Each structure stands twice: as structure tokens, then as C-alpha cells.
Amino acid sequence: MNQLTPPRYLEGRALLFAIIALGMGGFGIGVTEFAMMGLLQEGATDLGVSNSQMGLVISTYAIGVVVGAPLLTALAAKISKKRAVQILILLFAVANLTSFFAADYNTMLFTRFLSGLPHGAYFGLAGVLAGNIVPASMRGRAIAWVMLGLSVANVAGVPLVTLLGQATGWRSMFLVVAAVGVLTFVLISLFVPMRKATQGASMRRELSALKSVQVWLAMATGIVGFGGFFAVYSYISPTLTDETGLDIALVPLALGLYGVGMVVGSLIGGRLADWSIFGAIKLASVLMVFSMLTFAAVASWVIPTLIMVFVLGAVGSLLIPSLQTLLMDSAPHAQSLAASLNHSALNVANALGAALGAIVITAGFSYRAPSIVGAILAALGLLIAWITQRRAQKIGLVIGADAVLERIGGPAEK
């Protein structure tokens, strides 16, 4: 029986617990990725480097994601998706412990690279697994629900870990994340159903996704468009303290507002993805341009800035479910690797945004400058999304729920 047929869909509590288990991994990943930005100044002081040098620690983690996503996903091609995500989350937990013990700046760069390796592969395989346990018409929402763990991390995990880091030392973040990784392994063991590896799956078949021009266009949409977001968020802590005049002790509050925005954006973004993949991407890109320009304009005032922090979190999260679904449908015979490439794209965007932000700051511009850079990148991402859509139409590539139905047959279930 095909693993996507209706009898294998989950409903009710079974679906809820499976999604929570998969989302818990996203929570841990979100904490280790985004808390670093909130603790950037503490980390720089501890390691004896500048804020812009500490930004490269963020970029190094992102490079690990870029390398690990296709490599580990391809290696896991013949393993059941449940087993694969379990292995990945344990690797993630162990790698974060290496960062806790890093003795100097160069060692920290290396250990953060290791920590990033399982990130993209986990999200890619967890997203495909979630999409396989719901009807085609709910696929975008299922992917968004898994990603919601990352959003919740920014509401609760990142602010709490930031406070903990300020009180007990910023490295405590790595211990918390390792514990979440172990908890995720247990929850997946208990609540996520076993799914056989895709029939005919192999490393070669998964890597075939890298030959697709459409996949590269979809990745470019995310890299350039979302790079603008990271140009702003990588330096959110010094922007709030130096430009807005916010006390550093209140930075966790701002990060919490950003996280609430991410939750709202993820929930809306999943429904938008089920409505129209390209429509959601273009709408999110336009909103990102205007929100970043507005953020730069109001950065001197506390209340408007905090409102825009919430808005930035929301509009950024609108984009993610649609990007992942677009990549999956752009490589229908290598969906696992294609899905993981979404996180390669987002973390190339992370590295690009953090690096461009460091360049304009080092050049002597204020902490508002990365917002202008971000708006330009988001506008370019919108252009690439339009090109990607036109090419998909030209070659007859089906994107969205109809793509699932074309593979398995049968009507969409509402």
C-alpha cells in the first residue's frame, strides 16, 4: 500500500502528539539558532571578540546547516524517516555539548559548524514525515505545525534562555538545548508512527534533486529573500540597545515579541501555502520589504520599534511553509533532500544576511543600515520568485496540493 494513502493518515490525539514530538525538535533548533543572536554581546565579551566577529559564529552555524542538509539527508535515504529524525536529533544534542566546552573563539566557530549539520536534514525529513500523515489539502499546515516548534522557541525558549544566559553565563544555552534534543528523541519514539523508506530511494536518487534548475531557483528565492530578514535580526540586540535605547535587560522581552510574531506568521503561512504557494511567497516578500523599511525608520522610538519586531517575526514566518512546499514539489522524486534544502537556503540566507550586516556596520554605518540591506534583498527575492513561477508554468510543473494528488491519485480531502 502506498504510504500516502488515506488509511495511514493520523487524526485527533494521535496526530496532535506526533506533531508535538516532531515540533519539539524544531523548538530545540530554534533555541540554539536564535538565542545566539540575543546573547551575541555576552558571547563576544566571553570570547574576547567584537560584535561583528561574533556575528560570524552565527554564520558558521548556518554554513553547517547548508553542508549537512543535503549530505545527511542523502545518507539517510534508505532509512525510515522516523529512525532518521531520531538519529539526527541525537547528533544535534551531542554537537551542542561540544559548544558548551569550546575553550576559545576558533573552537567555538568549529563546534557551531558541527551543531548546524543536523539542522536542515531534521527539518526536511520531519516536514516530509508530517506531510505524509495528513491529507494533501492539509500538507502546508502540517509542515507549518512542525515549524511552529521553531516559532514557539522564539516566544518562550529564546527569551528564557537569554535570561538564563545573562544570569548564569551564556554557555548554559547549550546545556538546555542538549536536554531538549534528548526529550525530542523520547517523544518521537513514543508518538511518531513508523514509515518505511520511500520505495526505490537511494542516495543517488535524492542527490538528483541538485540537477534541477527549478530546485535551484526555488532555493535562490529563499536565499535572497530571507537573507534580508537575517541582515536585520542578526544584529537585533545591539540595534535595540544602541539605536532604540532599550536596556539590555529588556532585550529578552523584544525577542519574545518576535517569537509571538513567528507563531502568528507560521499559522497563517501554513494556510496560505495550502491556498497558493507562489501567492504566499510573493505576499510575504512584499510585506518584508515594507516592514524592514519601517523598522529602520522608527528605530529611535521604543514602542514603534517593539511593534515592528513583532511584525518582522510574523512576515518572515509567512514565507517558510511555502518555500519548503515549493522545494518538495520542484523535485517530486527526491522530496526528502529537496525539503532539507529549504533549510540550506534559509541558512545561506542567515550567513549572507549576517555577513552583509557586518560589512555595513564595519564600514561605519549605524545599526539601521542592515534593515535597508534587508529590504533590498527581499525585493530581489520577490523578483526571483516571479521568475521561478513563470518557469514552473512553462515546463508544466505542478505546485501545491495537486502535485501530491498527481503522485498518489485521488481527490483532495478537506
What would you note in describing this structure?
The chain is mainly α and 414 residues long. 80% of the residues lie in helices and 0% in strands. The longest helix has 30 residues.
Helix-strand blueprint:
Blueprint: H1 12-38, H2 40-47, H3 51-75, H4 81-100, H5 105-132, H6 139-168, H7 172-191, H8 203-207, H9 213-233, H10 236-243, H11 251-275, H12 277-298, H13 302-330, H14 335-362, H15 369-395, H16 401-408
Give structural attributes.
414 residues, mainly alpha, 16 helices, disordered N terminus
Task: Summarize the entry for a quick read.
With 414 residues, the chain is mainly alpha-helical.
Count of extended strands: 0
Q: What's the helical proportion of residues?
A: over 70%
Query: Percent of residues in beta strands?
Result: under 5%
Mean pLDDT: 84
Summarize the helix and strand pattern as letters: HHHHHHHHHHHHHHHH
Largest sheet: none
Oligomer: single chain
The whole-angstrom Rg is 20 Å
Decide which structural class fits the backbone.
mainly alpha
Tell me, briefly, the overall form: globular
Low-confidence regions? 1-7, 408-414
| Count of DSSP-assigned helices | 16
User: N-to-C terminal Cα separation, in Å?
Assistant: 22 Å
